[in-house]
Amino acid sequence: MLRFGIRNRPRRLSKAMGRKEDGHGTGPPGRLERMTIIVNSLVRHERIEGSHQYMDEARGYTERLLQIAAQGDKNHEAMDVANYWLKDKDLIHKLFKVLVPRYENYTTCATRMWTLPVEYPGGKNKTSILELKGNPWPPVVPNPRNNSKSLINVLLHNAKKDYRSASKDGTPV
Amino acid sequence: MADKLATLGFRSFLSHQFLKRSVAAVSCRYANTLSNETVEKHRTSTLAHDKEQKEEKKISAPAPPGLKHVHPEFLPNPTFYRRDRIKEKLERQDMYRRRAVCPIPEFYVGSIMAVTLADPYASGKTNRFVGICIQRASYGLRANFTLRNVVDNQGLEIRYDMYSPLIQKVEVLRLEKRLDDELFYLRDAPAEFSTVPFNLEAVSHPPGAPVPVNTTKVKLGPRPWHERWERRNLRGVQDLGLPEKFYEKAKKVAKPWEEYDLMLKYRTSINPQETDEVMDEVAEGFREIERKRRREKLEKS
Amino acid sequence: MVVSSRSLSKLFTSTSRRRFCSKAEGLSNAEITKKRNELFGREKARQLALITRVEKIEVEHVGPPENCRLLMNKGLSTPFNCAMHIQENLMSRSVLALVNGQPWDLHRPLEDHCELKFLHFKDEDPALSNKAFWRTGSFLIGYTLERVFKDQHYVQLCSFPRPRVETGSFVYDAHLGISDWTPSQAELQCMSRVPAKLQFEDFKLERLTVDASLASKMFEDNKFKSSQIPFIAAKSKTGHSVTLYRMDDHVDISEGPLIASTALINRFNITAIHDIESEDYGSLKRVQGLSTPKQLPIHFWNYGILCERAAKLNPAPMPAQWNKEAMATRNNA
């Protein structure tokens, strides 16, 4: 079960791998090849940025790949699927030995998408970041800081406290 | 939804992108349904008007692991615009009730079965047919299976709705599996592969024993055939013996990438979590029927 | 703002109305400051001359931009010198240093191999920086008091309590050579101009540990400080040293680390002067102030609210002569 909303139909991505010499597009196999490239680089780099449509499609494939790989590398089907989806064979080792244990106890999805802002006036393809959770990079959105101990905040907090207790007592502030 | 509103003369601000290329009939059907999330939200809301909300029946024990293979018709239809949780639940309830009256035994494609129908125009008012099951299809109350036999040198296939009230009895004369999920190639095979004598003795199958797999490889007759069997990856047929160009064309036409298209497989099947939930409910339904049956038996005696 | 010269005449005209003390003895704050400054400078030079051979120490810097190891001079290099090697950001924003986990002035020389961290006001837990800033505020009130009054008013600084930021103001208890004086807003603002200008000067706050005898000599004109010095010295590690700080030409006694330089200050206001009674020192004036650092901007309206609060009497304890019990139960600031 994929733990995020997926579209009911797949995107066609007709120009996924450009055009062949005869002028035709690459069709559904080209679409899947593009997906393997994206999934491959995601597993390698753990955070990639690209066109939103492609990232969204690749997200489902990555999650499914991780779910299938969770059956273990001894499983013939899991190894077959991993072999197809990961072109770089060192990533197969990373998938089974690093990523599968990492996501073993996850109740949420293993990937996260961030939609990036569109430069004015817009009209360009929306870009997104697709990342695996638990990646070693610093967070895309910085962790919220707690500034309550900063000097000004301490002074203002105590002034507020004073004011409230004084107004409660009824003493003129 | 966008199309429907447009026909009514309203400008639609709800452009569901994924419906842009859909068939008009589909979008109309989709327009009148509520998504499962919406329904669940309102059903489980504390502000619901209906105070007599039915409690979910508690599942006393999980279903045995292979139940979804034994009764695949209980699983929902994977096509997204045919999903409706409430309809599925109601259908399943009807299916348990029907099975309580007319039990349908375990069977697979390749099993030899005998079906007794109610027929007002036949002598004895019943109509019995014996054949080999070549297909199991559809979901819910529409579930059907097709039996094939050769009678008086005439190949005969009858498709039975499993939950039709006309069916009086379903017997499985020989429980076995074949190497393929569908046996339509028997149409192109000599008659002996499809012939089943009407007076075939039932072979008892001890409960709990594994289902035997019939590994016969059917030898097909000469071409022309009903289908291009060389493109089908059949396991239950002998070598087709065709010229090389057939196999080359088959390779050209084949879609080998679909085997690894994980999202296609996900969308055309029900995910394991939901399957398990449904099967648990089915097992509970069977238990409930069994309890009722025992209670009635006790009352009678 | 229009200031009436009449209201300021009490303090700032040459014709003296009230003589409280010591003009006859020829003491004035300016002369005493000069004397203390000279003694400080001489002692500092003397201590520097004691280092004949330059030894090297390994300083491990931990923290942004990167952990690194520096080779510095023992007894000469300060954490500020280390920051000069690492990044300009560290030089400009650092308030204190943590040397082996202990708070350390930024311009205090390093003694031995150590681990060094820099603190600033925007840390996750800037408690030490805040305390140092508050302590510096008190120190700067002392600086203000010793130079803002005319010569006929001899100001004797008594002491300042432990810094507590929650009170909303920092404090210096002093004996001003004036009685029966409630300062007006204009007078307080006038007084505030002296420390307010310090933000444009990059006066470093230099630290020096001197012998108690020298400290007594420096503060012989201040009856409060001279009585306190033996107790301060007794509490020190060696048993006879006193920690002094100098900024510009003002010298004062303080135990804890002060901020690196006055350039870190943004605003400074003397907010109130209250009359207090101390058991040991008699009637004194509690001078209260408020200041904010440059790294933390504040809107003038908020600052006004904080000033109003800072004008209320600070609940810090009255200055008291130390005795053995007080020394035994003394907690760290």
Automatic annotation (TrEMBL), chain A:
One of its GO terms (molecular function) is structural constituent of ribosome. Residues 1-14 have a biased composition (Basic residues). It holds the Pfam family Ribosomal_L17. Signal peptide: none annotated. GO terms for cellular component: mitochondrial large ribosomal subunit. InterPro entries: Ribosomal_bL17 (IPR000456), Ribosomal_bL17_sf (IPR036373). GO terms for biological process: translation. Keywords: Ribonucleoprotein, Ribosomal protein. Residues 1-31 are annotated as: Disordered. Belongs to the bacterial ribosomal protein bL17 family. This is Large ribosomal subunit protein bL17m.
From TrEMBL, chain B:
One of its GO terms (molecular function) is structural constituent of ribosome. Pfam families: Ribosomal_L19. It is found in: Mitochondrion. GO terms for biological process: translation. The keyword Transit peptide applies. Residues 41-59 have a biased composition (Basic and acidic residues). One of its GO terms (cellular component) is mitochondrial large ribosomal subunit. The keyword Ribonucleoprotein applies. Residues 41-63 are annotated as: Disordered. Keywords: Mitochondrion, Ribonucleoprotein, Ribosomal protein, Transit peptide. It comes from the Eukaryota. InterPro entries: Ribosomal_bL19, Ribosomal_bL19_sf, Translation_prot_SH3-like_sf. Belongs to the bacterial ribosomal protein bL19 family. This is Large ribosomal subunit protein bL19m.
TrEMBL record, chain C:
Signal peptide: none annotated. GO terms for molecular function: nucleotide binding; RNA binding. Gene3D superfamilies: 3.10.20.30, Threonyl-trna Synthetase, Chain A, domain 2 (3.30.980.10). InterPro entries: Beta-grasp_dom_sf (IPR012675), Pro-tRNA_synthetase (IPR050062), TGS (IPR004095), TGS-like (IPR012676), Thr/Ala-tRNA-synth_IIc_edit (IPR018163). Residues 77-118 form the TGS domain. One of its GO terms (cellular component) is mitochondrion. It holds the Pfam family TGS. This is TGS domain-containing protein.
